[in-house]
Amino acid sequence: MKIEEKQTQSEQVNTNPPEKGQPPKQAKMRASSPWRDSLRQLRRNRFALAGIFIIVFFIAVALLAPLITSYSYDKIDPVNRLQPPSGEHWFGTDDIGRDIFTRIAYGARISLQVGFFAVTGALVFGTLLGIIAGYYGRWIDMIISRIFDILLAFPSILLAIAIVAILGSSLENALIAIAIVNIPIFGRLIRSKVVSLREEEFIMAARAQGMKNGRIIIHHILPNSVAPIIVQATLSFGTAILEAAALGFLGLGAQPPTPEWGAMLAGSRDFIQLAPWTLIFPGVSIMLVVLGFNLVGDGLRDALDPKMKN
Amino acid sequence: MQKPILEVNHLKKYFDVRGGVFGKKVGEVKAVDDVSFTVHEGEILGIVGESGCGKSTTGKTILRLIEPTEGEVKFEGENIAALSAEAMRKLRRDMQIIFQDPYASLNPRHTVEKIISEPLLIHGMGKKERKSRVKELLEVVGLSDYHASRYPHQFSGGQRQRIGIARALANNPKLIICDEPVSALDVSVQSQILNLMEGLRDQFNLTYVFIAHDLSVVKHISDRVGVMYLGRLVELTDKEKLYDDPKHPYTKALLSAVPVPDPDVEKERILLEGDVPSPSNPPTGCAFHTRCPVAMDICKTVRPTFEQAEVNHFVACHLYN
């Protein structure tokens, strides 16, 4: 068939543009954008919904802590020490008579804050370094990637301990340490994403149109690498809370009487047989929050992965 | 004679091959090796060749999407290979490219409106004007204005390629490099896109450098055709001359491989032996001598120059000069 013949044939089947007077058929089409599709996917995932429920629950507890308990988290009451859970003290009391439920509710504030700020810090610096390394390549990439390798060569908790040891033990320093430990995790992730994006034709198209590097990075590279960032941020949130608890347990994080969950565990480990509730409740809280973030993270990963679309 | 809009002189692009622990340079791939040609205003210059012969690299090097190793690219008399990055960026509104893969060349996170209006934005057009220009462009390429709010994944390959064309047209360029714009499309859609591009050329007085590996596509659309082999241009002439009276043995072999849709026609096919040599280690002399049925001794040692064998018929072969 000659091309001329093909042309006449194909013009008959070509439905674009619609004939004049005919209303466009756009109304029937379901609103669809890459983000909306992912959200729809996420809503279908029951585990992710459970994770969201857990997180929302703890956020609510943290925000409403003064309203849901009549005790103070640092009020010492030696008379009522090591009371088992009861109507009076829902989760019992610890070795100096503080109400454990109250301490857990206030502790949720601390854990969520630590998670949020540590992840935000790691995300901002990690993304920045990762994009610079991935987009500009060459020696800049060499330097940044080697720094990441060095940081990743240490076991994360050991590195965090070392940083806290230098800065001094406090909640803020623990937070900074956790952020630093997480920077290379974000950085490497973003770098690899940017390296593969850089070779994409639409990036070359952007350059062909005469865009500056800054615009290409902000409008083309970033929106396309946000998905793995979100997933990693959610998963890191859980890890950061766990690491904060670990530092607290070791006495390097929050200092008494701050109701930090890890520190609560450390303070009551001598009473594990005598008063197991002093350990069980902070332990379960840590587990639940981390589980919640992991479930959401996994759900997001599936929802944002274009290959998982059905 | 029309005036030349693009002159490519001795363009070379060598890619370094690095190896070993310290990434030392261990060789180079001569993707484009001394290519020269001229494109006149308003014409469509086809460039054909098999895969890996450097067609696309040539196209991208002309636009400095890949930096040339050596040589000149003169656009309207100005050597753009020597321009600063900022001057080059500003010049890009006059030189555009249409990519091969309509699935990879559009940002999946942007709406069609954003895709087409971005080149307008970066070259300083106001918001209102942009909106009406997008509408206009969508109509020009055969889409409708309600398509503007959709995302690339909601379109077919042919429609996406139309979006790519609209984006290239946005700033009224003078020259468009078409890097195999139809080879990723279905045959019936190919002809639609080709006819659209031909129409646009007439409508907006565009000049195309049309890169393709499909000989019938090139025959349909081009005014002149250049044939590339292993990073070199071996023959360049008018379409009719090339298809009726090919001079270079490689062109002859290439054309004899085009199937004739008539089973009764007895056709002599020139079958080339062996594979295309590696561009990292091209043969001495004429790059084609290892497979040429009429190779002579001189072909093995002396590289043939690219000269006019007849009026407007350039060929790089010792048989003719």
List the helices and strands and how they pair.
The complex is a heterodimer of chains A (310) and B (321).
Chain A: H1 3-13, H2 34-43, H3 46-68, H4 100-136, H5 138-153, H6 156-167, H7 171-198, H8 201-208, H9 213-249, H10 261-267, H11 277-304
Chain B: E1 4-19, E2 24-40, E3 44-48, H1 55-62, E4 70-75, E5 78-79, H2 85-91, E6 95-98, H3 112-122, H4 127-140, H5 157-169, E7 175-179, H6 187-204, E8 207-212, H7 215-221, E9 224-229, E10 232-238, H8 239-244, H9 249-256, H10 297-301, E11 307-310, E12 313-315
Parallel strand pairs in B: 3-8, 3-9, 6-7, 7-8
Antiparallel strand pairs in B: 1-2, 1-4, 4-5, 9-10, 10-12, 11-12
Helix pairs in contact in B: 3-4, 3-5, 4-5, 5-6
Which labels suit this protein?
heterodimer, A: 310 residues, mainly alpha, MetI-like fold, 11 helices, 70% helix, elongated, B: 321 residues, alpha/beta, eight-stranded mixed sheet, four-stranded antiparallel sheet, 10 helices, globular
Describe this structure in words.
The complex is a heterodimer of chains A (310) and B (321). Chain A is mainly α. Chain A has a single domain, classed as Orthogonal Bundle (MetI-like fold). Chain A is built from eleven helices and no strands. Chain A is elongated. By secondary structure, chain B is of the alpha/beta class. Chain B contains ten helices and twelve strands. Chain B has helices at residues 55-62, 85-91, 112-122, 127-140, 157-169, 187-204, 215-221, 239-244, 249-256, 297-301, and strands at residues 4-19, 24-40, 44-48, 70-75, 78-79, 95-98, 175-179, 207-212, 224-229, 232-238, 307-310, 313-315. In chain B, the strands form two sheets. An eight-stranded mixed sheet of chain B has the order 6-7-8-3-9-10-12-11, sandwiched between helices. Chain B has a four-stranded antiparallel sheet with strand order 2-1-4-5. In chain B, strand 9 and strand 10 (232-238) form a beta hairpin. The relative contact order of chain B is 0.14. The model of chain B has no long low-confidence stretch (mean pLDDT 87). At the A-B interface, helix 1, helix 8 and helix 9 of A face helix 2, helix 3, helix 5 and helix 6 of B.
